[in-house]
Amino acid sequence: MSLNEIQLAEIEDARSTTRQTRRPTVEAMEEILLQAFPVLDHGFVRLIDYMGDDSAIVQAARVSYGRGTRKVNEDRGLINYLLRHRHTTPFEMCEIKLHVKLPLFVARQWIRHRTANVNEYSARYSILSNEFYVPAPEQLAVQSSTNRQGRGNTLNPQQAEEVRKLLIMDATHAYEQYRYLLNENDEGEPVDPGRDGLARELARMELSLNFYTEWYWKVDLHNLMHFLGLRADSHAQYEIRVYAEVILEIMNRWVPFAHQAFVEHHLEAVTFSGNAKRLVRALAHTAADAVMPELSRKFGESGLTKREWNEVMDTLELPQWKV
Ligand SMILES: Cc1cc2nc3c(=O)[nH]c(=O)nc-3n(C[C@H](O)[C@H](O)[C@H](O)COP(=O)(O)OP(=O)(O)OC[C@H]3O[C@@H](n4cnc5c(N)ncnc54)[C@H](O)[C@@H]3O)c2cc1C
Q: Which pTM was predicted?
């Protein structure tokens, strides 16, 4: 992970300072505040700030449900209920701010998520550092024959090494050209005083998509879950998925009840089309007499609440097996 010396000193300094607050805080988040989690070869995700916790979701929900929530009075149960029934606004009460370092081609996918606030490193103002992503050999694969947007079998080690060499050679050359065009050393002095340097906003055209950029990214929990639902999914490109997986872990520290409900009702859940539902229903009816007596007797082992179990039975049109 590449944090420069100035950044590391700033982090150390900021982490040594603590403040008293009346705001709710989450101990597991305080532990990692400002800390960077490495991703890919030079990237990271760093927690800058957060607002709210599981209770903030519940608190907001209770404003709308008021006394009517008596039956779902446990925080965990209420959060589950809200997610399952797509009552999303209470989740917007929580916000998170991250500092992310990521390759440009990953940033291009990430920025499509419009419901966040972004401030990116300016390559018009500053000189980009010589950091570019080179996939590990096991990540280098052929084009998938079944998924036009994905990869298939891994390249053999010899071919993988050839690809890596080419990527390193091209990026190294591109960076040399970039610095040549800028004609500027790290102190901002001309390298060759007899030649004009090209403006930073133009010289950056030389760089390839695997160079790293950085940004601050702030998003509310509802939109974060939308992002994670798409980018932590197994169909997402590996290079963005690894960032989503780190953020998912941070979410688990931050709002563990919401995280659990999100995994259960979104990440691991599937949606059936009308035809698929009728097919599953027909299969269930065929097998019901054989399997349902045993299954309904042990319905607690399914992990479903009584309410969820009964909803499944209604969907399958098997009301006689409600509990
Ligand atoms: C596997 C995968 C493959 C993809 N392939 C491509 C591709 O080939 N080409 C390509 O261009 N993109 C591609 N994308 C990007 C994709 O189309 C979305 O742009 C991206 O995932 C962001 O999703 P979003 O718009 O729902 O998110 P956000 O921008 O965060 O929006 C969240 C939600 O807010 C609402 N919203 C936001 N803005 C508007 C608006 N202006 N109008 C109405 N509703 C709005 C929508 O309900 C939206 O779902 C791909 C994404 C994935 C995950």
A: 0.91
